[in-house]
Design a protein that fits this description.
With about 475 residues, the protein is an alpha+beta fold. The chain folds into two domains: about 10-110, Beta Barrel (OB fold (Dihydrolipoamide Acetyltransferase, E2P)), CATH 2.40.50.140; about 130-175 and about 210-475, 2-Layer Sandwich (BirA Bifunctional Protein, domain 2). About 30% of the residues lie in helices and about 25% in strands. It is built from 14 helices and 16 strands. Helix 4 crosses helix 7 (about 285-300) and helix 6 runs antiparallel to helix 8. It is elongated. The two termini are about 35 Å apart. The mean pLDDT is about 95. The structure holds 4-amino-1,4-dioxobutan-2-aminium adenosine-5'-monophosphate and magnesium ion. Magnesium ion binds next to strand 15. 4-amino-1,4-dioxobutan-2-aminium adenosine-5'-monophosphate binds near residues 238, 249, 411 and 413.
Amino acid sequence: MEKIRRTDIAFLLNDAEGTFVGQIVNVRGWVRTKRGNKFVGFVALNDGSCLATIQIVFDFAKMDESILDRVHSGASISVNGELVESQGSGQRFEIKAVEMELLGEANPDEYPIQPKKHSLEFLRENAHLRFRTSTFSAVFRIRHHMIFAIHKFFNDKGFYNVHTPIVTGSDAEGAGEMFQVTTLDLHKIPYNEEGNIDFSKDFFGKATNLTVSGQLEAELAALALSKVYTFGPTFRAENSNTTRHLAEFWMIEPEVAFADIEDNMDLAEDMLKYVIRYALEYCMDELVFLSQRLQDEEKSKPQNERSPMELIEKLRFVADNEFVRTTYTEAIDILKNSKANQKKQFQFPIEEWGADLQSEHERYLVEKHFQKPVILTNYPKDIKAFYMKLNDDGNTVRAMDILFPGIGEIVGGSQREERYDALVGRMREMHIPEAEMSWYLDTRKFGTVPHAGYGLGFERLMLFVTGMGNIRDVIPFPRTPKNAEF
Ligand code: 4AD
Ligand code: MG
């Protein structure tokens, strides 16, 4: 076969002027479907560069039919052919094949991804091949664009990206839900004289774990570079088998010196709106496809469980409306007096101030009460991390959580406690070992300044933007309890 430089299918299909019509081009990709009769065959070819397939037309009088007999869904082929305006409906251009090479066969009796609707559960079990479907290739193309949009947003605002460590000796959130990292032989654990594990014999000479957040190190950088953000993997060994929790997820954590909680809320709201608008601008084909898919799925749901807004409409709504800003105390009043609470419809009834909000409460506030994204501030100190700035009331901290429809908490952040004595006081109350955190406390000793930051759960953002219902379907290879396949 004549060697011609390969062209992305997206490049050919998106060329509005049709510059390449009449030219011989080469495309390579995976066969989605094949149909035809004795005289002519049609292959829908996808190379992942875009959602659409390009139609390849084979005239059997001119082609080697024996090769085409081995081309099935999933097979990879390389085609040289003439780009022509399509006669059929549904596509503007197609390729009249001149030569074809079968690169890799896919035995139809064994290849799991057939041209029919597969359940998401089935595709999760075949996560190594699910990239080949329209749904997952759409999700992962959007994922790429969202990563890029986040870097662009912060770069354009003068933030510096910092890589914070993945292996750490600290528990940033103080929640203790960490994966340990060790090279000790678990069959021959060394003990010290007190009968405790002797971590001085371990690789780092101390107990270490996978990070739950890059925040503490990002704070160190912010107190010199002023505006920084991390975007890295984080790990939580919480045993939550829900549609919104992963054991390994990606988090964006900006940290800004000389900023207070108001600045923090503005930054987070701007960022969310920016990336949503970016998706509307650069991922429209994918969003239209996912919206259609969602609407088909909604039809099988009872009326009261259906989403009130179509996906694209929902994204526009969030991008164009101000988020509601209110306090935890106000939220508790709303929840306590809600019909849902009085009729005992919450799994965790709200009885008093101080209760931690569950996702059912967050979603009630967003979806039923305010019907808009909500930023809640000033939470009780007892349900939040040690580093949040204590308010003058002595009971609440300058925390801010952003709650989104269908998701609940998407962002968690705060103004940080920059006063040395107040921070040490909180650490003692919460039994956080000061000695191990001396490096963190040093920033409060030397040139401390008010500062604030937050963490956006990247996969939660992906759930919102794609409309997918399960967090396992917006990360290529999900890690959840009892599941680390692939
Ligand atoms: O609220 P979190 O725990 O906040 C922090 O880790 C802070 N250190 C962030 C900061 O201020 N720099 O987590 C932040 C976000 C949550 O709002 C949620 O979106 C996401 O991370 N998240 C998870 N996403 C998927 N799976 C999990 N298990 C998650 N836990 C938190
Ligand atoms: Mg949180």
